[in-house]
From TrEMBL:
Name of the featured protein: Gamma-glutamyltranspeptidase
High-level lineage: Bacteria, Pseudomonadati, Pseudomonadota, Alphaproteobacteria, Acetobacterales
Entry annotated with the keyword Transmembrane: yes
Segments traversing the membrane: 25-44
InterPro entries cross-referenced by the UniProt entry: GGT_bact, Ntn_hydrolases_N
Annotated family: Belongs to the gamma-glutamyltransferase family.
Alphabetically ordered keywords of this record: Membrane, Transmembrane, Transmembrane helix
Cited Pfam families: G_glu_transpept
Native species: Gluconobacter kondonii
Length: 472
């Protein structure tokens, strides 16, 4: 089978939807409008613009969302409840995570998503930050890749206008969230370094010496203004327009070393997924450049170390999908190891039509550079030139009749091994294992109408699934 690989950039929305020739140096003028518009745009009980309300089934399962952070999972679940599909819910979940878990899913970072629809070849979309190329940066940053990657997924698979899916995240940023256990744990882990930056301390600090704790409230009005600007002007404004200038200037002041060309060159890559067929199960995995998928696939097929396989892959210098598929088909493994890898987060989504999405997100370091991109309120990701590539891993399994499992993981060096082990278990109808440092989010199905969400019992995630409109 011929493998397809292409890059797609978002249209420059400022050419067709420009609301001003240039933004001022600060986004604070847009914050006020963001608060006003955001308050009206996502009201409990309201409908998403563009959704076919008859698409949601009257009974049975509408789908499931499983994520490391509960408030984001509920946003995705609400999109499913209002008739959105899995791509719509995944996009909304990822955007919500940028507000509720900015330690791992900041808009300054990126990630990868695996998408599968019944009867179609699964696709892998990677949207990874590029390193800043300006010299003299004292805290080198990566470019914000998430918006372009999510836009591409929504363009190809979604049913809702992308800007409508920004509204829930905007509302969370403006109205405030409750700090979850997941975010509080991350804040405590980097407390000293984070509080050393004045902008970060203003957002995440609790007094002079502490960070916010679980149960505290966190409002992010500057981030709300940033989201409102994108919602009004379009995603292209962040990469080709006035908002790009604002972000670059803020990143430079924070020591990030980004420039306009870095932003323009930040493009997502869509390819066929890596695939393997065993025992009547068709398994799809994230494809390079998200090479954790290759490690997970080799673990699934051979039981060999996923980390070792990825170490061998990175050492080989190969980068193409064809080479990765050949390595998988040959059962090629490795005995190497990887350095300490960046933190990540993951989530999985299914809908009533059998579509499935599994994503992993990262900032190349916990809280990225630990600095904020000025008035945007965005946590800058760490430069991929200064940190190892995160191990982004996900898998989707189907048999001839239905969906069997949707799996993604975090856990740094052990994420890919965890996905491979979970996929092996799901293929044999065994319980999903929760061992080692890997943290699994999964949806396991016995027929498309009988699926259940699975979170790691050691973590604080949420599986939000609906049968007859009940959440569990």
């Amino acid at each position: 089978m011929a493998h397809r690989q292409h890059q797609i950039s978002t249209p420059d929305a400022t050419q067709t939807r420009r609301i001003a020739s240039r933004l001022p140096a600060s986004l604070m003028a847009s914050v006020a409008s963001g608060l006003l518009l955001g308050a009206c745009s996502w009201i409990p009980g309201s409908h998403l613009v563009g959704i076919n309300e008859t698409a949601a089934p009257a009974g049975g399962s509408i789908g499931t969302v499983v994520a490391d952070e509960p408030q984001a999972a509920l946003v995705g679940h609400d999109v499913l409840a209002r008739g959105g599909n899995a791509a719509d819910a995944a996009t909304a979940t990822a955007l919500a995570l940028g507000v509720t878990l900015p330690s791992r899913a900041s808009y300054g970072g990126g990630g990868a998503c695996l998408i599968s629809r019944p009867g179609e070849a699964a696709q892998s979309i990677s949207f990874l930050p590029r390193p800043g190329t300006s010299k003299g940066a004292d805290r080198p940053a990566g470019t914000p890749a998430s918006f372009r990657g999510l836009y591409l997924m929504q363009l190809h698979y979604g049913t809702v206008e992308f800007n409508d899916l920004i509204a829930p995240a905007l509302n969370l940023a403006s109205s405030g969230i409750t700090v979850s256990r997941a975010l509080a744990t991350d804040l405590a882990a980097v407390r000293t370094a984070l509080l050393a930056d004045e902008s970060a301390r203003t957002i995440f600090g609790r007094g002079e010496a502490n960070t916010l704790a679980a149960g505290d409230s966190l409002a992010q009005p500057r981030l709300a203004g940033f989201l409102e600007r994108i919602r009004v002007a379009g995603v292209g404004d962040l990469y080709n327009g006035a908002l790009a200038d604002v972000y670059v200037t803020a990143a430079q002041k924070a020591g990030g070393g980004l420039n306009d060309d870095d932003m323009r060159q930040t493009l997502p890559v869509q390819t066929d997924a890596l695939t393997t067929h065993q025992g009547g199960i068709n398994a799809a995995f994230l494809a390079p450049p998200a090479d954790g998928g290759l490690g997970a696939a080799i673990r699934y097929t051979t039981g060999a170390s996923a980390q070792g396989a990825v170490a061998a892959w990175r050492a080989s210098g190969n980068t193409t999908l064809a080479a990765a598929q050949a390595a998988l088909d040959s059962g090629r493994s490795g005995n190497g190891s990887l350095p300490s890898l960046p933190a990540s987060t993951s989530f999985v989504v299914t809908d009533h039509s059998g579509m499935a999405v599994a994503c992993a997100l990262s900032e190349n370091n916990l809280f990225g550079t630990g600095r904020i991109a000025g008035s945007t309120g965005v946590v800058l990701s760490a430069s991929p030139a200064r940190t190892p590539q995160p191990l982004l891993s996900a898998a989707i399994l189907r048999d001839q009749r239905s969906l069997r499992a949707v799996i993604a993981a975090s856990g740094q060096n052990e994420a890919a091994d965890a996905v491979g082990d979970a996929a092996r278990a799901a293929a044999h109808d065994a319980p999903i294992p929760h061992e080692g440092a890997g943290r699994i989010n999964a949806i396991v199905c016995h027929g498309d109408d009988s699926c259940r969400g699975v979170t790691d019992p050691r973590a604080a995630g949420l599986a939000a699934g609906t049968t007859n409109d009940s959440t569990h």
